[in-house]
Amino acid sequence: MSYASFVARRAALAVLAAYLVVSLTFVASALVQQNNLGGQVAAAQRAGASPAEIQELREEFWAARGGSDHLERYVDFVTGFVVLDWGDSHAMNEPVTDVVADRLPYTLAYVVPGMFAAFLVGSLLGVLGAFRRNSVFDGVPRLAAYLAMGVPSFWVVHFLSTEFPSLMPWLQPTRAAVSATPRVNEVWSLAFPLRYAIPAFVLSLGLVAGLLQHSRAESLEYARAPFVKLLQAKGSSRLRVARHVLRNAAIPILTLSFVEVLGVLMLNVYILEAVFNIPGIGMISLYAIENQDTPLVVGTTMVLVLVGIGGNFLQDVCYGYLDPTIAED
């Protein structure tokens, strides 16, 4: 099987996974709506409403949500998801897709640089520690990694948000309200990502610790491999040897790191945005939950789920590129 066929198969599996998630989301949404209707009917009965009034209440409830035919609503739900018609937010008074599109730049402003720095620093320090085992280049990063893993991220966030803004005001994140909409010029200006340097730093702390441990452990295994001794015998530089070791260790590193990175990312998005008051996906999701805005809750949740599915797909694509034998299976 060619690499293109391998990628096509993985893409089909990603689409299938997204479809299953959308279907489960519809079921959960339908159950919530049914529960809300039951509460309204019970309240009307306690108020002495007649059967005709209760029936009218039911009809109005389902008419506002696309009808009572679950199959028809399911088809509309899946179709709307594909064409990015995710309904309207009751709390924000605008389409859910517009809300998500407005909030996403705020989240990406600290997630992208934080993840990039974590992968770069964690991988390099792990490989360096494997080649300089039991030296200061190995011990100090490992000690720092253990400390980073032992300190809760919310404590680091609280400490930095209360102490460092007074010392470095240019790093203080924007205190934007949930209802505020980011301006295009603001998002793409240099000052925008700089204001989110502290959240990016805190996000990278938890990721670097795990990546360093995984990179060091896998690099140690390959550092003793025969091909490394052959490269060293030929007089290859340490950089070239490290590059070969990292390439061979990349697949197990990705395998071990993906779930951990995804878990840390999903949790910290809510923590960072709540503490720093960043009006991103995590903040707007909490706002939707507090206001019982079901369409917005579903929309923000789907964004995070799709990120996980997309990340898993990219992981498989990297597997096939780094190890062609996987694509041939």
Automatic annotation (TrEMBL):
It is a multi-pass membrane protein. The lineage of its organism: Archaea, Methanobacteriati, Methanobacteriota, Stenosarchaea group, Halobacteria. Keywords: Cell membrane, Membrane, Transmembrane, Transmembrane helix, Transport. Its main location: membrane. The chain crosses the membrane at residues 108-131, 143-161, 194-212, 245-264, 270-289, 296-314. This is Peptide/nickel transport system permease protein. Belongs to the binding-protein-dependent transport system permease family. It holds the Pfam family BPD_transp_1.
